[in-house]
Amino acid sequence: MRILVLMKMAPDVVEELEIAPGGTALDLDYVRMILSESDDHALEQALLLKERHGATVTALALDAPEVDDALFTALAKGADRAVKIAGLDAGFPTSQAARAMSQAIAQVPGLSPADLILTGVQAIDDLDGLIAPMVAHALDLPYLGIVTRLSLDASGRTALATKEYPGGVRGEFEVKLPAVLGIQAAEKPPRYVPVAKVRAAMKTQKIDSAPASLPADGGCAAAQVVEMKRNEPAGHAEMLDGDPESVSDKLCGILTGHGLL
Amino acid sequence: MTGSICVFAEQWRGSISEATYEALALGREVADALGVQLTAILTGSNARELAQTLGAADLVVYVDHPLLAETLPQPTAEALAQVLQDRRPRAFIVPLTNVSLGVGTLLALRLGTAGINFCKDVRIAGGRLQAVCVMYGGKIEATVEAAGEPVVLGLWPGARPAEKGRSSRSPVVEEATVSLRDSPVLLRRYVEAEAGDVDLTKQDVLVAVGRGIQSKDNLGLAEDLAKSLGGAVAGSRPVIDQGWLPLSRQVGKSGLSVKPKLYVALGISGAPEHVEGMKDSALIVAVNSDPRAPIFNVAHYGIVADVLETIPVLTAAIEAKRAVARHA
Amino acid sequence: MGACSVTLETLPRFPEGKELLTCLQCGVCSGTCPYGDVMEYPPRRMIAMMRAGLQEKVYTSDSLLACVACYACQVKCPRGIRLTEALLPLMKEQALTHLPELPGELQKALQSTLRYGNPMGEPSRKRAAWVKTAGVPIRILAEDPRPADVLWFVECYTSFYPRGQDNSRATARLFHRLGIDFAILGNEEKCAGECGRLTWEPGLFETLMDYNMAIFQKYRFDRVVTSCPHAHNAFKNRYPALGFNWGLEHTTPFLAQHLDRLKPLLTRKLNYTVTYHDSCCLGRQNEFYEPPRRLLKAIPGLKTVEMVHNRGNSICCGGGGGGMWLDTYFKAKGYERLSERRVKEAVATGADVLAVSCPYEVSRFEDALKVVGYDKRIVVRDVTELLAEAMEE
């Protein structure tokens, strides 16, 4: 069983986001990048499958600031190989990321055939689409998203995937492998890896680097950001100011006015 | 249908989603402004009668196929692409819900056109369609144009009130046929939500907690407040994922959609995933330490404060008020 | 790396390891441990298990999670075995990789400290945001790198937590009025990492030490003064291996050194009865028992009373050694929180104010007071806050 985990760095929204001069993109010199949260879950799910069924796990990521940390962390957690695709322009859209990944899967030695390709269900910067269905389309593989549980049958040819629906309903699906799955959450929260282990991985392991190769036709038509701004509170909420006591009194008055007290 | 604004009528387990009516409401506005038709495409298996509920559209195209019963992304996108092959709308709106996630991306690829995700509104500027998108967990708003049409727009729930997308009119219904290859993804069964806990959808008052509550122990504070208001405690996804509350208490895209008379959001930042499940509440009060938290965009009243400090004071004030009322 | 090259395997070759062999198995450590009664392997048994080669059992149990690094066992050990300083961190390092699951709250704190330089996961670029609320000028070295006498290492809770910022604002006002030539690192500062080391994570600690040392070396200053006893501990005992050779003070004893000049400024009468809580790092580890008390007594009108457990016998607030991020875990296990035990003692003295000198304690004790329902009977204030209050015209 060979599992490929597709990982993408996304802006870290814990830190401030700045908009670049020109007003149509984030200031990438300022923004910090972090592994997209659901990609971290995809990696965890792959490692859980490796522990349960035996598998090799390869983490494939696109070059971006701090991506080496994410890949060495993946190796320290138990991934068998880390591959970085270099050479994309900063601020590449998701459609380009997906094309570069699909190309790399086909061309970089050892990446294909993979039995299972896992990636995060969605990243906060997936403006022009989602990685998982894009890669599934490019490689002509089955796709399912919002997966929160995953097991493999004995033959390793079918996966049983649980997808989340509204209202707490879960759908259980049989998925023929190989397939691309968008992971919403791993069965367990992503594991902790001691920093010393990551540091050791940096010394003893390596990240394979492969150049990005994009098809000349550029894929589908682009979405163009014409303006970007901070999502300031639109003023919908009337803000109540003061110390906790006076704020509470004001709110009690409002609730009384609405017949709620 | 060519040149129209088209909405994907999302059908799941025998009914049309609220998000579909919201999309129809927005689609109607845009179509009227452009002076074009509003069309809807409904996919399903033996679901033709649902087309009658889509009267906000001028035309409904219904596609029937056994593989379309569960709205699985690949067969659904394939069917939509076949329907749209020779009659291209200007825009195709897909609700961004757990049911249809992935459909928009796949359809854009099949049509060789642009997809724009995370839309909360559509504008017309100089005759061109512009999508207003909420990115980066709600922190940034972007105005986005597609280089060409049709454009496939993924629409967050909540763009318009669903009521505006309902109509008693009977739409013209056309049936289209598609040919689909076998799906390598098959539903085995649905597992219903765990029963036995409080039914959040039936509560008049919900006190919802998010990451800002910091630890499971502080849930007691929220429970006291909920008790004083005669309501129940709900949570956003991180709180449920931590195991601090059961899944049956989750509000949001992957949880429940609720419309209580009062929704108190404590330490919830207001990520779109959460807002989707609570935006229709009659009165929303948010307490968050971050004045920029997107929850204040959707709340009616906001308090910038440390939630752990505010909750007990608020609970005491409400209890005092109730005590006075009882003795009056 | 010199600072952390000792591992559990190499321990017997180091003086700390040899000490271990001298253990009398008297059990004073287990008896004095605040969580000794709930640990499957209290300190005495840990040592016995190690000597029997059964340490694996210890670090797959959850006994080490309950070690709050309070130094109580270490100061009472008749053989002088450095349990808190040496043995327990090495065992915790093993436990980190052997425990079936690390409690989520602790895991998040460690990850946030690595990424954002603070355990709360607050934005690293807002670390100095409190400065503009200080009311007095505060020099940030990145903006004005002239040499300073005092490099004030503010630390995390005092930078981000609203109540911790009260301490920082008070400290800034005191330094300003005393005419101290001070500056801070602002957003360049990251957690000193002591809790990383005492909380299982030597790799995290090394990363933070490397980082902070590189920042220190960018600037010129004579000494480091820090508001956090844990940072003080790290700078005193671990950073010197990396070349930390500046003067070092914790804010409270540092201010006590300036008492002659400070006293005339303390003009406002505070009619409080105050009981002082000795923090583990400042007290048992460094024996700064008198400086905070001298400062308090310098405030006109203020009376001090002592809790039953004071000075070397002080009860830990439960926040050390990672306990700060294990409250949920302890609660789930049914352990009494040490902070609750402590505030009950404070209330029993009849004092109006529980005075502290460690930034962990304000939030811990205020929280505990709410939990036990005593929040109307006593308030928690840092010594610096009381001094600043007494200084106002």
Question: What does it look like?
Answer:
Chain A is an alpha/beta fold. Chain A folds into two domains: 2-211, HUPs (Rossmann fold); 231-261, no CATH class. Chain A has six helices and 13 strands. Chain A has helices spanning 37-53, 67-77, 94-107, 131-139, 195-204, 244-257; strands spanning 2-7, 9-11, 33-35, 56-62, 81-86, 116-120, 143-152, 158-164, 170-176, 179-183, 208-211, 223-230, 238-239. In chain A, strands 9-8-7-10-6-1-4-5-11 form a nine-stranded mixed sheet, sandwiched between helices. Chain A has a two-stranded antiparallel ribbon with strand order 2-3. In chain A, α2 (67-77) crosses α5 (195-204) and α3 (94-107) crosses α4 (131-139). The longest helix of chain A is centred in the N-terminal third of the chain and has 17 residues, at 37-53. Chain A is globular and about 65 Å long. The termini of chain A are far apart. The model of chain A has no long low-confidence stretch (mean pLDDT 92). Chain B has two domains: 5-176, 3-Layer(aba) Sandwich (Rossmann fold), CATH 3.40.50.620; 200-327, TPP-binding domain (Rossmann fold, 3-Layer(aba) Sandwich), CATH 3.40.50.1220. Chain B has helices at residues 18-34, 73-84, 103-111, 219-229, 237-241, 272-278, 295-298, 307-327, and strands at 5-9, 11-12, 15-16, 38-44, 59-64, 91-95, 114-125, 128-135, 140-146, 151-155, 172-176, 185-191, 205-209, 232-235, 262-266, 283-288, 301-304. In chain B, strands 9-8-7-10-6-1-4-5-11 form a nine-stranded mixed sheet. In chain B, α2 packs parallel to α3 and α4 (219-229) runs parallel beside α8. The model of chain B has no long low-confidence stretch (mean pLDDT 91). Chain C has 393 residues and is an alpha/beta fold. Chain C has three domains: 11-98, no CATH class; 104-257, Rossmann fold (3-Layer(aba) Sandwich), CATH 3.40.50; 261-391, 3-Layer(aba) Sandwich (Rossmann fold). Chain C is built from 19 helices and eight strands. In chain C, α9 crosses α19 (383-391), α13 packs across α15 (290-297) and α17 (338-348) packs across α18 (359-372). Chain C is globular, with a radius of gyration of 21 Å. The model of chain C has no long low-confidence stretch (mean pLDDT 91). At the A-B interface, α4, β7, β8, β9 and β12 of A face α3, β7, β8, β9 and β12 of B. β9 (170-176) of chain A pairs antiparallel with β12 (185-191) of chain B, so a sheet runs across the interface.
